[in-house]
Structures are given as structure tokens and as C-alpha cells.
Design a protein that fits this description.
This protein is of the alpha+beta class. The chain is 32% helix and 28% strand.
Length: 180
């Protein structure tokens, strides 16, 4: 189901038939380095990951990570959306793109749209984001969309200390957004 549309992207709910793309994304160098190995090694694993991750979140929370597809060609390029994580009080914005689609502004475009959706549709006043200390591209994007470093955190069951960013209020970074 389509959730958002921007100038170049469509953000829609993930479905199990997106498993081939999700398998590639979860095993891309950037995902493995900055997010971590999720043990998704087959298309069947990816289908289960979607079912027990994004689809479960849509049902339980009314939001989740959305598949970002190019309008031109309907090609999946990444994911961007909202996550309710254990250990964080506020909803977390997350994003990841295949390496061949990085550096084209899709992260900024999709994250700006998701922030607007979170504020205007879901009524979120505060959103957070987490990243590893060495993930310069994500840190740069978070600053660009209005997040500020708040503190460091360690999530339950994890050992790595992460940077926690916070965004309070809203600035319209993407005027060409259609919320469906």
C-alpha cells in the first residue's frame, strides 16, 4: 500500500514479495557495517524478516520501515520509515539505501517526507534517530533534516554505544510531498 509520494519516490509498505530486494539491502556493505548482520541469507529469510519486522510494525504501531521506489521505473532503492524500538521513548526514523542509489538525495527526500508524515498524520512532536559514531553519511543527513545530537545510548541487548539524535518541532524540507 502506497503511503507517501515525493517528487521522485513512492514510499509503500513492504510485502513479502519484496524479499529479493530486502535480501540485497540487508547484505549490502553499508547495512552490514552500520546496522549489522541480521542473519538474512536467503530469499525465504528475507520474507520472514519482512513479515516479522515491517509488516508486524504496520499492524502493531500503524507505521514501520517503508520501501522507497523510484517513480520512474518502479525500482526499489532503499527503505525509510519510523520504528518503535525497545529502549527508546520516542519513535525512531531509519533509512538505508543500496550503494548504487546513495548520494542522489533519496535519503533526504524520503526522510523529509517521513518526518512530515510523522508530524502531520501521526501527531509525533518528537522524533529520534540513532546511528553508529562512525556513520558520517547518516550523521550528515540527520543534521540536514533538522536533528541535533542529544546523547549517547546503548540499546537493550546491545553493547555498542550509539549516537542519539532528536528533532523537536517541524520544518518543511519537502514541499512536493503528497500524503495519501
Amino acid at each position: 500500500m502506497k503511503i507517501l509520494e515525493t517528487e521522485r519516490l513512492i514510499l509503500c509498505e513492504q510485502r513479502q514479495d519484496d524479499a529479493v530486494f530486502i535480501l540485497a539491502l540487508l547484505n549490502s556493505p553499508g547495512w552490514l557495517k552500520y546496522i549489522g548482520d541480521r542473519g538474512v541469507k536467503t530469499v525465504a529469510d528475507a520474507g520472514n524478516y519482512i513479515l516479522n519486522g515491517a509488516m508486524k510494525s504496520y499492524k502493531e504501531n500503524g507505521f514501520g520501515l517503508y520501501l522507497a521506489k523510484l517513480k520512474d521505473g518502479n525500482i526499489p532503492v532503499g527503505v525509510c520509515g519510523l520504528i518503535k524500538r525497545p529502549g527508546l521513548e520516542q519513535v525512531d526514523i531509519g533509512f538505508a539505501f543500496l550503494p548504487e542509489h546513495e548520494g542522489r538525495g533519496y535519503g533526504f527526500e524520503s526522510a523529509s517526507a517521513v518526518m512530515k508524515y510523522g508530524r502531520e498524520i501521526l501527531g509525533l512532536k518528537v522524533m529520534v534517530a540513532i546511528t553508529t559514531k562512525d556513520n558520517e553519511p547518516s550523521i550528515k543527513l540527520l543534521n540536514k533534516i533538522g536533528f541535533s545530537l542529544k546523547e549517547t545510548v546503548t540499546l537493550p541487548g546491545d553493547k555498542e554505544e550509539l549516537l542519539l539524535f532528536e528533532s523537536v518541532g517541524y520544518e518543511n524540507h519537502n514541499s512536493s510531498l503528497d500524503i495519501l
